[in-house]
Amino acid sequence: MMIDRTRLARLLDRERDAFRERNPRSAAAYEQARGHLFGGVPMTWMNKTAAGFPLYLAEARGARVTDLDGHDYVDLCLGDTGAMAGHSPQPTVEAVADRFGRRGGATVMMPTEDAAWVGAELGRRFGVPYWSFSLTATDANRWAIRLARAITGRPKILVNSYCYHGSVDEVLLVVGPDGRQVSREGNVGAPVDPTVTSRVVEFNDLPALERELAYGDVAAVLMEPALTNIGIVLPEPGYLEGVRDLTRRYGSLLINDETHTFSAGPGGCTKAWDLRPDIVTIGKAIGGGIPSGGYGLSAEVAARVEAMDGLDLVDMGGVGGTLAGNALSVAAMRATLEHVLTGDAFAAMTELATRFTKGVQEVIDAHGLPWSVTRLGARAEYRFTRPAPRNGGESNAAGDPGLDDYLHVYLANRGVLLTPFHNMALMSPATTEADVDLHHEVFAAAVAELVAS
Ligand SMILES: Cc1ncc(COP(=O)(O)O)c(C=O)c1O
User: Bridge partners of 254?
Assistant: First the structure.
């Protein structure tokens, strides 16, 4: 089944017109902001919209969002995982109100007891015992790779092609069409060409990984156990075991970035698949929406860091932020981990994501579309290629911005939000079967209109 591009363009125009018509207050707010905000938005990525301007937030609770024009949405975007706990979950709200309001103090430069509780819980979940906190996953990755370089004495970081680990200089490179490693297109103001600091290979490619590790200059492999930022790309049987064996054999550390793959369960893929990384990094969801992140070190890595002379770990040595690990952030993490993103919650979220995947697959099959849908625990994503891509390069080649935009606006006009950067749907503890079914109803209608003869 080929997509008729003329038809797609006509439908997309119609949906964009309807979006403009439906959202006059968001349109006006955006227009007004253009005089004061760079690009008209609080952060330039908020211009990633299918319809020309962003919807403005009025309220959000659980799996629901209300925009400035008063429309309610089933939110399957959930802050691109930052709100996987649901928006403003009650235990987190209470912990934040208690810490910041009743007891007072967010940024005090003094530890609170919550931090050790969170460290112990993350250790229990992810299997690495010694934790340090950040406010973003980006910073967790930055600081983890600095420690990895320090203790190995090696200069380079190895990543997978079309990975995303935040705006970390070392990760912005891909395997180009001719197999050469190149800076990612559009890389803004790179301090040096990333091939100086990094190596990159395709996911699921152990021979390439071995070839690059054999240079002996890789401090750490920084990876997601499944790619999630170029669609979901799952590891093939034996791949992750192979990565662990090779990193050990060539003396490189293994860092699992669980920021998105946390969707796989209470301890992310690391726990679900019994992985043994040296360092785990995480951010986004663990604070229930309050900026939070962290990195956990194995006992061996922690001992190696501590055995080194001359590392400035307390002042201006490059690892740390004044507001990192603040009392408010760790209170939010504690409440979210203790009461919201629990084992039971993950079981229910995974069941819903399975329902989501099944419904999408039925629509794909009904029309014989060459598309696929992939799930990782509570998260699912459709991609316009079949079979599902086995690495980032393949998945990138299957990108279809016109189809993305059409489905995103069509869904938004009918009360369903997907993540702007993906065709990703994430389940929170507050998401319901009815929410998933609404997506299916609208998705089926969007596809039916697209393929009608
Ligand atoms: C796997 C992964 N790591 C790190 C990050 C960076 O997170 P943040 O932008 O919150 O720092 C992201 C963001 O999407 C991510 O997907």
Answer: 221
User: Strands 218-223 and 253-257, how do they pair?
Assistant: parallel
Q: Are 242 and 386 in contact (CB under 8 A)?
A: no
β strands within 293-339, DSSP E = 293-297
3-class secondary structure, 253: strand
- Cα separation, 221 vs 163, whole angstroms: 12
Which pLDDT belongs to residue 231?
96
Spans of the chain, pLDDT less than 70? 1
Q: What is the pLDDT of residues 6-56, one digit of tens each?
A: 999 999 999 999 999 999 999 999 999 999 999 999 999 999 999 999 999
Nearest-CA residue for ligand 1 atom 2 is 165
Question: According to the model, what pLDDT value does residue 1 have?
Answer: 67
> CB within 6 Å of ligand 1 — which residues?
80, 136-138, 141, 164-166, 224, 229, 257, 259-260, 283-284
Residue of 260, 270, 419 to test ligand 1 pocket, by largest number of atoms within 8 Å of CB: 260
| Residue of 133, 171, 259, 279 to test ligand 1 pocket, by largest number of atoms within 8 Å of CB | 259
- What's the CA gap between 345 and 338, in Å, rounded? 11
Six-digit token pair at 103? 């007891």
Nearest CA residue ID for atom 4, ligand 1:
165
pLDDT at residue 2, as a whole number: 79
Name the amino acid, one letter, at 234.
L
pLDDT given at position 145? 98
* The ligand 1 atom nearest the CA atom of 80: 14
pLDDT at 423: 92
Mutate to test the pocket of ligand 1, among 157, 160, 165 (most ligand atoms within 8 A of CB): 165
Give distance in angstroms: CA of 453 to centre of ligand 1: 42
Contact of 339 with 354, CB cutoff 8 Å: no
Helices (DSSP H) in 166-278: which residue ranges? 194-197, 206-213, 239-249, 268-272
For residue range 210-265, list pLDDT tens digits in order: 999 999 999 999 999 999 999 999 999 999 999 999 999 999 999 999 999 999 99
